[in-house]
## 1
Amino acid sequence: MEKQDRLYRTAFSLALFTIIYNVAEGIISTYLGFEDESLALFGFGTDSFIEVISGLGIAHMILRIQRNPDSNRDNFERTALRITGVAFYLLVLGLVVSSVYNIYTGHKPLTTFWGVIISGISILIMWILVRWKRKVGHELNSAPILADANCTMVCVYMSIILLVSSGIYELFKIPYIDSIGTLGLAYFAFSEGRECFEKARSNKHCCCD
């Protein structure tokens, strides 16, 4: 029982770290994205803020299943999921419209250097979190925690998109690549938004299963 409590404390700590990291990443990415006129980096930062809302629901979920592993998703989690879903859909709309506008006007970022740096750090941090969450989930035999780890992989995929688009632009200055990378982020944001509403309507742990 003591080991189980320790593992749940670890899972909760990982959830809190994810929230704090996303707040910091969101602030830095949106600021630098705005300054460098990089839509992909700005959109990546905005996504990080939305992930904070999701993270609050996950932290609450861990406390709930610690008390009762067989309990179903409660109203707090469902509300957090719906808010997160709406936020993701609004983000998709903004990213798609902005990307099309940038492509139409031929707008290019001043630099994507910080996109390369931030995405590289994010890939490393998120991958460590995925591995750690999976380890805790397996030791607890907890489907919700394992599902959360799988969902964290989406952050890795989005970081890879930012890294590739930012890296290509920084090296070769290929027009529209920042906007194309932004559309890639929009695709994953749309998928996450859809999954949030699906989870809110059911007791399934995570659509990333």
## 2
Amino acid sequence: MADRRKDATDRRTGGTPAVTRVTLRDVAKIAGVSHQTVSRAINGKGEIDPQTQRRVLEVARELRYRPSRFGRGLARPDVTSVGVIVPDVVNPFFPEFIAGVIKAADSREWQVVVASTENDPSREPALVRSLGQQVDAIVGYLSYPDEDLDPYVGGVPLVIVDRGLDSSTYGLVQVDTATGIRAAVRHLIDRGHRRIAMIDCDSVCDPAARRRIFHDLAGEHDLPVDDSLIVVGDQSIAGGDAAFVRMREANPDATAVLAFNDLVAIGALQAARRIGVRVPDDCALVGYDGLTIGELIDPPLTTVHLDKRRLGELAIGQVDRLLSDELPPPSVLTPHLIVRRTT
């Protein structure tokens, strides 16, 4: 087992990719079980011993075994399909990400199937399993760690987007969140702000990432940060509205707010206007994500811009290499600050 783990690590760090496709019988031989047992373990059938299932899945993962959906008659062998799992198709961030996936897939003449967890992370494992039985690979905004996803993946190539955790098993697309938050905070400091608040939200990816980075930067620049300056709200315009009101009641002297995303920032702007706080004269405002809608509001929103279509393209690039039996290093997307009139 140690040798198989080393093989996975070698592929992650640029070792020579495997050229021979692993078969179900290869897994059975190394696991010391029949190929029927391997099939039942991979497909989540309940009539085998749990310890045996864990052993089979461990061997399958280490060998990077990928079950053939063509053998089950689920698709034409000349068409590659990719499943995409996002938390919310209504949030304008994710349609742009999906558009990037589709563009990159189209250039390879692949098909794309989209599914949503409807902002319910508990749905992730079941979606991974069901979608994995229909497609050649999966790209997903998934919060579960590898060990919790493994029983549901069943050997299908998987790319995880912006989870905040490393992996020696799956493809990764990471967002350099620290660089984005750092640019926003430095911009506010350069504008003379010292009392900076944050509206944070629970996230599918890494729930406290922005908060941790914000705290670290505050320490670096000797900024005052207490619990009342960080308010957690829902990831929506209404959530941003309510969070801004709470923050302002607790900290009327706060002169700037960094919002979790642009929707939250728009909600904060809406609340500021309603309660008589002038943006940016009384309180500056920075969003995150770079949604097109941020250009259309008045005043236009300063934001940390993330190229969402490029994010989708990078995910498909990871899929391409996984389908060639190579485990590539993570792809990293770095956001940049766009300064508009809310600061």
